[in-house]
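Any chance you could type out a protein's amino acid sequence plus the matching backbone structure tokens because I've never seen that pairing?

——
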Amino acid sequence: MCVSNPGPPMADVNDAMCPSRLVLEHVTSRWGVLVLAALLERSYRFSELRRSIGGVSEKMLAQTLQTLERDGFVHRDAKPVIPPRVDYSLTPLGREAAEQVWSLARWTERHVDAVQRARSAYDEARAS
């Protein structure tokens, strides 16, 4: 499991059996990042969230929300009205995680041109 020292075990994402690795996977998954980033703005209903995240299927969004809710990042608020209304928002832990992954997402937006140039140079060198 994680590195054990006297006292509580220390998390180590490099350890294949450490639970922190699974948390990292959930937070940094393709849809996890986008869901967390969207919820930084405000709470959303399921259909609103799906429209705001281009390309996500209903199934993947439902799975992602359920995983993030289980991990304590997302709060699901089901209102007892007709028709049913469910709102999704970030928990304090989720807000902290969302701010971190959103920084990385913004970094990728700023550097996408440099990455594309590097890919082109790599592909040209490999073709020679």
